[in-house]
Amino acid sequence: MLAFYASTHPSPQWQGFLTALAEEFESELDHAQLRQLMARIGQRFADAHPLGQCETIDDLATALNANWARLDWGFVRLADESDHLSLTHLCAPLAAFGPGADTWATAFLEGAYRRWLETLGADALTLKQVRAAGHTELEFRLAR
Questions:
Q1: Please, are residues 138 and 118 in contact by the beta-carbon 8 Å criterion?
Q2: C-alpha–C-alpha distance, residues 95 and 134, integer Å
Q3: Within-domain flag for 52
Q4: Pairing state of beta strands 126-133 and 75-80?
Q5: pTM, rounded to two decimals
Q6: Could you report how far apart the first and last alpha carbons of the chain are, in Å?
Q7: Which whole-number Å values give the CA distances from 121 to 40, 53, 60, 124, in the listed order?
Q8: What is the rounded CA–CA span in Å between residue 38 and residue 29?
Q9: In whole angstroms, what is the distance from residue 17 CA to residue 29 CA?
Q10: How far apart are CA 32 and CA 22, in angstroms?
Q11: Which GO terms describe its biological process (predicted)?
């Protein structure tokens, strides 16, 4: 992961802007509103970056990682557990929003994954974030 970060950290031209944007968001919206906003942004992102046809979990992982790789947004690992599908996203550049944003900025990924999974027919299931290790490792679960 360190090699990935070293080669793809957020561009300095965006760092100050994104930190200021996050500070403005935090001054105007509460935590729940921030998560809702970021989830909606994630949904719009997913709509703009469709996955295409995915028949298997391996197809899904390949399509998701192709999208993230094109944009230097880290990568995802999928694991088909007995009662849920685990999506673990690693190396997302969300740290660019600053240290206080790690509790709400991650909803961007949740919104994107939710939309992609809905478009593939998983709209009867629920996706939610279950674990975060800062911005470096985020786990989401898709289950009933």
A1: no
A2: 8
A3: yes
A4: unpaired
A5: 0.91
A6: 32
A7: 19, 11, 12, 8
A8: 12
A9: 18
A10: 14
A11: cellulose biosynthetic process
